[in-house]
Amino acid sequence: MVDSVGGKPFTVGDRNVGRVERAAPLRAAETPARTDAQPAASGLGQVARDLASVPPVDSERVSRIRRAIAEGRFPLAPATVADRLLAFKLNWTGDDQA
Which residues form the Anti-sigma-28 factor FlgM C-terminal domain (predicted)? Predict the structure, then answer.
């Protein structure tokens, strides 16, 4: 026999409710003990600050490309630019709907 997909009707005898108990009182949060990981964490903060102060691009490469574009030596094909932009967009996130 196949069970119904919808809700099951109940009768008066089906109204059993579990007993509700009082919640335990909250305790104050304990302060964690200092560990050796804390000096490493402060070192990571310094590394993050150092990396944030430097631009994430190769300035020399950008200037070479700009010179090549200005001199007409850099091949700019509109179809290639469009293809790369579309590929970048499609790989941006896996949640995009087609």
Answer: 40-86
The residue among 81, 83, 57, 54 whose CA lies nearest residue 69 is 81
H runs (alpha helix) in 15-94:
37-52, 59-71, 78-90
Q: What's residue 63's pLDDT?
A: 94
Cα–Cα distance measured from residue 34 to residue 20, given in angstroms and rounded to the nearest whole number: 40
Residue 72 pLDDT more than 70? Answer: yes
> Of how many residues is the chain composed?
98
Cα gap 41→48, rounded to integer Å: 11
Distance of alpha carbon 27 from alpha carbon 88, whole angstroms:
51
pTM: predicted TM-score of the whole model, two decimal places:
0.33
If you search the block for the tokens 């509700």, which residue do you land on? 20
Cβ(48)–Cβ(41) below 8 Å: no
